[in-house]
Amino acid sequence: MRVAIAGAGAVGRSIAGELLENGHEVLLVDKAPTAISVERVPLAEWLLADACEITSLDEAALQRCHVVIAATGDDKVNLVVSLLAKTEYGVPRVVARVNNPKNEWLFNESWGVDVAVSTPRLMSALVEEAVSVGDLVRLMRFSQGDANLVELTLPPESALAGTRVGDVAWPDDTSLVTIIRGNRVLTPNREDALEAGDELLFVAAPAREEQLEDLLSVRREDDSA
Predict the structure, then answer these.
(1) What is the pLDDT of residue 143?
(2) When comparing pLDDT for 218 and 50, which is higher?
(3) What is the rounded CA–CA span in Å between residue 77 and residue 53?
(4) Three-state secondary structure readout of the chain
(5) What span, in angstroms and rounded, lies between the C-alpha atoms of 176 and 150?
(6) Mean per-residue pLDDT for 199-204?
(7) How confident is the model at residue 93 (pLDDT cuts 50, 70, 90)?
(8) What pTM, to 2 d.p., does this model score?
(9) How many Å apart are CA 8 and CA 135, to the nearest integer?
(10) Distance (Å) of CA 150 to CA 2, 126, 211
(11) What are phi and psi of 195, to 5 degrees?
(12) Cross-strand pairs, 202
């Protein structure tokens, strides 16, 4: 898979390194000469150019890319790169970094963004995820399809503890994608029984999040009542 990354700062280089380790072809693009540090990611291709200019993207052969990642520290640049990648070059998958959470609402399909990753929001979500049981935590937003990746740790008092996945009436537009149980990562099937303490990851429409949280956090009736 060929991936172009706009922004060769610490974030861009880190992403490039991970992708190269997984066998992908990576091009790093940055307009700042000081950012071109070939020795830091020697296996990547490098291009000194402004990723907001069509001539630069032509030189980068963006039409051959399967994924474009807009990873600069400037939200305006990331939006322009995303829009050009999608509309001018038809890149199938565009991922954009959101630096200022106040700008997150802009990072959607109108600007060519398939997945928006807000580093401040993600860090906040990971803190919440670490300390929250029974509360829905939004980890990531997918612009296409208007869906979020959300997490909830099943509390001991949940009525669904012990219930098989296939027997749960999940809300519409909701999909359970992973169960993390201890140090195991499970691909859920209909026969798997949910356990208290399970970390459940869903892709869900925003309108269904409250319904999903209510379903998973509902308490059993007191037997003594």
Answers:
(1) 62
(2) 50
(3) 10
(4) CEEEEECCCHHHHHHHHHHHHCCCEEEEEECCHHHCCCCCCCCCEEEECCCCCHHHHHHCCHHHCCEEEECCCCHHHHHHHHHHHHHCCCCCEEEEEECCHHHHHHCCHHHCCCEEEEHHHHHHHHHHHHHCCCCCEEEEEECCCCEEEEEEECCCCECCCCCEHHHCCCCCCEEEEEEEECCEEECCCCCCECCCCCEEEEEECHHHHHHHHHHHHCECCCCCC
(5) 10
(6) 90
(7) very high
(8) 0.65
(9) 37
(10) 29, 11, 13
(11) -125, 145
(12) 150, 176
Supply the pLDDT for residue 222. 46
Q: How many residues does the chain have?
A: 225
The rounded distance, in Å, linking the Cα atoms of 82 and 94 is 6
One-letter amino acid identity for 40? R
Q: Please tell me the predicted confidence (pLDDT) of residue 124.
A: 53
